[in-house]
Amino acid sequence: MIAIGGNSLIKDSRHLSESDQYRALAETSARIAPIVRDGWRVAIGHGNGPQVGFVLRRSELAAGELPEVPLDVCDAETQGSIGYELQQNLGNAFRRLGIDRQAVTVVTQVEVDPADPAFDAPSKPIGSFMDEATAARRRDEDGWVVREDAGRGWRRVVASPRPLRIVEQAAVAALLERGFVVITVGGGGIPVVADEHGRLQGVAAVIDKDHASALLASVIGADVFVISTAVERVALDWGRPGQRWVDRLTVSEARRYLAEGVHFAPGSMAPKIEACIDFLERGGGEAVISSPENLGLALLGRAGTHIVPG
Fold this sequence. Notes:
This protein is of the alpha/beta class and 310 residues long. The protein folds into two domains: 1-121 and 159-216, 3-Layer(aba) Sandwich (Carbamate kinase); 223-310, 3-Layer(aba) Sandwich (Carbamate kinase), CATH 3.40.1160. Helix content is 38%, strand content 22%. It is built from nine helices and 17 strands. The strands form four sheets. The protein has an eight-stranded mixed sheet with strand order 3-9-2-1-12-16-17-15, with helices on both faces. A four-stranded mixed sheet has the order 8-4-10-11. A three-stranded antiparallel sheet has the order 5-7-6. The chain is globular and about 55 Å long.
C-alpha cells in the first residue's frame, strides 16, 4: 500500500494547472511502475486537499448561477479526476516497461463514527477566506463552523474524524487479487456515516489520507505500508540544531518520540508516524516513509525510514 503525498500531484505554487498535475503524476507513475514490474501487488492512496479547494472555489465563484457543491461530492469529483490522470499515466508507464498490467480507480467511501469527538471540535480549514460578515452569515444560515485564521480572514472548518471502515474494501481486495493496480481512498476517502439501518450518507468532514491508507493496508493484508512524502527519511528534532535523520524505528521508539512532542510536526509528520504505528499494531509487518524518487530503493531497504514492530 503506497500513500502518495501532495508533492506527487502539485510541485509548488507556480504549478497548479491540470497539465502541471498530470506531469507530476507522470513522474510518480514512472517511479511506481518498476515496483509493479518487480512483482509487487500495489494499491495507491493519494491526497486531494488543494484539488478540493479548487472545486470549492469554482463553486463559490459560480454562486447564484449554479448550486454549490457539497464537500462529500468534492471528494468524489477529485477522486475521479486524480484517479483518471494517475491510472492513465500508470498505464503509459507499464507499456514503456512492457508490463501487461492495468490500473483502475475505485471511488471510495470511508465510514466514520458520527459520535467521533472530532465533530465537536472541527479543526480542518477548507475553502476560501471570507470577511467576518460573510462568515457570520454562512454560520447562521448554513450551520457552518467558521474561524478567524491568523489575521488573514475567516474560513470554514470541518471535523477530521478517524476512519472506521473502507466501504469498498472487498472490491479493492478482489481487484488486487486479479492483478490490477488499484487507486483508492483518494483524499482519505469520502466520509460517510451509517444510520440505525446501515444506510450511508455523506458528511462534511476531511479524513487524513495516511490514516485511511493505513486502515486499508491492514484490511487487505498488505506486507508493507509506504508513505511517500517530501523528505527521504524521518528526522528527530526536526528543524532544531540537533536534527538527525533516522533509518529505523521500532513502534515503541516511535511512540516515545511522538509523545515527546518536539520531533514530528502536527499536521505534517506526526499523523504519518501515527498511521504507521496503527498499521503495525494491527499486525502489519513494516511501514516505510520516504520520498517519491526513492520508493524503489526504500522497498529494498536502501532508503527511507523503516518502522517495525517492537
